Amino acid sequence: MGTLYEDIVDYGGEVFGREHMETLKACVQCGKCTGGCPSGRNTALRTRKLMQMALLDLREEIFNAPELWFCTTCFTCYERCPKGVKTTDIIRTIRNLAAKEGHMSVPHRMIGVYVLKTGHAVPIGPDQMKLREKVGLDSQPPTTQKYPEYLKEVQEIFKTTGYDAMIDFDWETMNLRGMEKGGKK
Ligand code: SF4
Ligand code: SF4
Q1: pTM (whole model) above 0.90
Q2: Cα 57 → chain centroid
Q3: Most buried one in 10, 14, 34, 50, CB count within 10 A?
Q4: Over the stretch 140-155, which tens digit does the pLDDT of each residue have?
Q5: Ligand 2 centroid vs 85 CA: distance in angstroms?
């Protein structure tokens, strides 16, 4: 394990290329990213601060910062940065590093639970089904929610990649470990 910057370049570099990740070094802390962040208007997310924490090697602090998970990956900061810092991809890489060390937020882990149980990050509910019928569509599109017999293959991917362990999924209760079947702690 190197510095957080080195890990970001190594790990993110495998997906985006090292030069892409090395743009982090160009950050001049101008704050233009924070100024345009839609999530930051309503949450504690401060994009400039995340970049600063990454450059200062504040690994534990950033991995434990709830705001790391408030980014909606809208790419506004990415487009606005005058120095070409690939902010959104840097945030996504930091999240992946944090997740590997057991720091994924509960709401993000719950998205994994939905995918495991239905094949959808956002399962289709009764309201959407009614809407679909109203415009002449089948109440459900042809996905694993309609054909649950194919869900096993999705679940197999979770097992093969170890994602079930990463989110601490309990196959007995079909929920996060320590949560009741209804989703409550
Ligand atoms: S806009 Fe770019 S240079 Fe300015 S603080 Fe954000 S990441 Fe750094
Ligand atoms: S990508 Fe994330 S950090 Fe950047 S502006 Fe959008 S929500 Fe904010």
Answers
A1: no
A2: 21
A3: 50
A4: 999 998 999 999 999 9
A5: 13
